[in-house]
Give the backbone structure.
Amino acid sequence: MTRELKSNLLAQLPVITEEVDFAYIQHLVQSAGKKLVVLDDDPTGSQTVWGVPIYTKWSIDILIQALKEPASVFYILTNTRSMTPERAADLNKEIALNLKIASAHTSIPFRVISRSDSTLRGHFLTEVDALLDELDEPCDGILVIPFFIEGGRYTIEDIHYVEKGKYFIPMGETEYAQDTAFGYQSSNLKEWVEEKTKGRIKAEQVCSISLDVIRRDGQRGVQTILKSLKNRQICIVNAVSYQDLYVFVAGLLAAEAEGKNFIYRTAASFVRVRAGIEKKHILANGDFPIPMKPGGGLVIAGSYIKKSSVQIEHLKKLSGIENFVVQVEQLLDEKASESEIERVVEGVNVALGEGKDVLVYTSRKLIHEQSSVRFLEMGNRISDALVKIVSGLNIPPCWIIAKGGITSSDIATKSLKIVKAEVLGQAATGVPVWQLGGESRFPGLVYVVFPGNVGDEDTIAEVVLKLRGAIL
């Protein structure tokens, strides 16, 4: 495995010659006058924002309401990462059509962020093309910005890295690149575009905005490159710090003010800057609105990646946690599935009734499938079982942590019946916290959306301790 010493790579970068104040970004955002709409392909994309609404449905009436919200941005949870490419495309077209109608009704214009994984897993370029086809507006460029400092994801000379201790590892050499559904080989994002489009778009056709341009030429240099884009040209954006994003977004908003039109395919860090939202401190005990009530809290984990498994093992060592393993092999057996679900539901209800915190997690043996579509189907079946477990609760938990993107999305929409939630902030770096709306199954419940690929080995345990200390 290739490993680059982080300090060496960063030391070779040019210094920033033109710093941009965040208040200036906020001024530009306000002047732009367009609502940002984030289509989030799993519920973890609210990792950097706070005080903004998330919707899980997208009827025209709901989108009219969302466009009228005072916040500069709102999220729509699509969960398309769990879908086939065809279904993901159809859903994006449906949302785009409804957005056009809602925008015409309210006279409120919008721009779209297609938020996806900082480790490059997702339906690129399928979702973006579907959105643009349905929006049917001229688009000069597709901006690809996977930088996500909260999770240790950096882009340097068009190569995307993940931070591992004091090293940077090229993303194509990580476990994320081996994903059964969304695997890839390229760490260079221009080559990754060619790979993901099966050669339809060649690497040499992809533009990029380098750190040299951002740090030496500043926002005018960024603006010049963006103004040269046309006909949906893909452009990679390099970044290793928020100040890099500030400079880029200043140039972006200047280009848009001159009439250029872009769509964004990004990770979570870009959303906060483009929306002009100040950074908020990590939530402390007193920031969680958790009333005293019967029953403990619930951690439910479906994510199977190595980081999640390590975090689960660490959490199991915490005192006062009762553990229930859902056997995946049983879930995939038609006859055994229901009895396995019933066994876990009964145990969880008893434990919650005794005031215990509960951990429910899937067995860690990953069943590999040759077909990526079949693998997604298998993941959905496992998630459906976790949904049935949470739906079977007869005692409301004090709080819920859902580990993994598909898991947290399905629990939110199918078990908890969320239509609208508010992002309160982050329980730990990159770990968003929602408060459920009044229409949900448990109104006001604190719901922690814990991404599978975020945190250290003890982060879930630390969040559980924080939530225990927050109960009033």
Notes: The CA atoms of residues 301 and 361 lie 5 Å apart. The longest helix spans residues 85-106. The domain at 4-274 is CATH 3.40.50.10840 (Rossmann fold).
